[in-house]
Design goal:
This protein is of the alpha/beta class. It has 11 helices and 15 strands. The strands form 4 sheets. A 7-stranded mixed beta sheet has the order 10-9-8-11-12-15-14, with helices on both faces. A hairpin with a 2-residue loop joins strand 1 (15-16) and strand 2.
C-alpha cells in the first residue's frame, strides 16, 4: 500500500515566506453566506487565516486555494495516499468503505434514497471519490440511472474499472454545459472543500430537474469546536476544509439560493477523545491515518423550489 504523506508537508508547496503565494490565492471580499464584509479573525493555523462573519457567524478561511492550487492539492501525493487507503480497504476489508462517511451515515443516506426515489431516478454524485455511495445504490438497492463526477484521477479510475460505474473526471461546470438534468444530486462531505461557494451551488441547482432534490452532508461546526479545540482540532485543516458550516449558516446559505429544507438530521458527538488527540498530535501528526479527535456531522435533504 502507498506510503502516507504528511499533510503539512504537502500543503507547504503553496506558500512563500509563510503566506499563501499569489499564484495560488483566492481572496474573498465578503462572507459567502450572507455577503457581509464585517469579519473577525479567529486564529492562524498552518499558514491559513480563519475568520468568522460578524453577521451570521459563518467560519471560513481567507484567502484559500484558487482553481490552480485546488487542482494540484486534490491530485497531490497526500490526497492520493488517502485514496490508496480507501481503495485498499474497499478491496481487502469493506466493500463500500468511504473515508468520508461512517458506516451509520452511509446506511442512513442510502436508506433515504431508497425510501424516496424510484430505482430509475436520475442520480448524480458530485464529488463521488471512488464511488462507494453509487456502488451501494447500484449493487445493493438496484438503482440503474447513476452518474458520478470527481476531480481526482485515481478515484475516477477505480470507480470505473473496479466498480463499473459511470464516473467522469470533470468539474461540475462542464457537466452543466451538456444539458444533463437529474432528480437527485448527492453531495456528501464536499461543500466544506469548495473555494467558490456561489458558483458551486448555482451549478448544482442548474443540474436539478424541476422538483429535484439535493442530499447534502458536511461536518457540523458548532461553538464547542472553536472554544474547546480551536486550531488543535483536525476539523480545522485548510487547505482541505475551508468552509465551516453549522445548522444556522448552512440553512441561510441554501435558502439564499432558493432551496427549501424538507428534512434535517443532526449528528452530535462533541466529546473530546484524548487518546486520538495525543496520537494525532504527537505520534502520527498530520497523517492520513490519524483519527480526528472531534466529530460532528449533519445531513439534510433539501428541496429545490424553482426551475432554472
Amino acid at each position: 500500500m502507498a506510503n502516507f504523506y504528511l499533510f503539512s508537508e504537502t500543503a507547504q508547496q503553496f506558500f512563500r515566506q509563510g503566506e499563501l503565494a499569489e499564484e495560488f490565492a483566492l481572496y474573498l471580499e465578503a462572507c459567502p453566506v450572507c455577503d457581509s464584509r464585517q469579519s473577525k479573525k479567529l486564529f492562524d493555523h498552518d499558514g491559513f487565516h480563519y475568520f468568522t462573519c460578524k453577521s451570521c457567524s459563518f467560519v471560513y478561511t481567507n484567502p484559500r486555494l484558487n482553481e490552480a492550487g485546488s487542482k494540484i492539492w486534490y491530485n497531490s501525493p497526500y490526497y492520493n495516499a488517502a485514496l490508496a487507503r480507501e481503495i485498499y480497504t474497499n478491496q481487502k476489508e469493506e466493500t463500500y468503505y468511504s473515508a468520508s462517511l461512517e458506516p451509520l451515515h452511509l446506511k442512513e443516506l442510502t436508506d433515504l434514497v431508497r425510501d424516496n426515489f424510484d430505482r430509475t431516478a436520475k442520480i448524480i454524485d458530485v464529488g463521488c471519490s471512488t464511488g462507494s455511495i453509487l456502488a451501494f445504490l447500484k449493487n445493493e438497492l438496484g438503482f440503474t440511472n447513476l452518474k458520478g463526477i470527481d476531480l481526482n484521477e485515481k478515484a475516477v479510475e477505480f470507480a470505473r474499472k473496479n466498480r463499473g460505474l459511470d464516473v467522469e473526471l470533470m468539474d461540475i461546470t462542464n457537466i452543466n454545459q451538456r444539458g444533463d438534468y437529474f432528480d437527485l444530486v448527492i453531495n456528501t462531505e464536499n461543500i466544506e472543500h469548495v473555494n467558490k461557494l456561489e458558483d458551486y451551488i448555482l451549478n448544482i441547482s442548474a443540474l436539478l430537474n424541476e422538483g429535484g432534490y439535493l442530499l447534502i452532508s458536511t461536518p457540523h461546526n458548532d461553538e464547542k469546536a472553536v472554544k474547546l479545540l480551536g486550531l488543535f482540532g483536525d476539523h480545522f485543516c485548510a487547505p482541505n476544509h475551508i468552509n465551516y458550516f453549522n445548522q444556522k449558516t448552512i440553512t441561510l446559505f441554501l435558502e439564499k439560493y432558493n432551496f427549501e429544507v424538507s428534512r434535517i438530521k443532526l449528528y452530535e458527538n462533541n466529546s473530546f477523545n484524548l487518546y486520538s488527540f495525543i496520537k494525532s498530535k504527537f505520534f502520527v501528526p498530520d497523517q492520513v491515518s490519524a483519527d480526528p479527535p472531534y466529530e460532528a456531522y449533519f445531513s439534510r435533504l433539501l428541496f429545490n423550489n424553482e426551475k432554472h
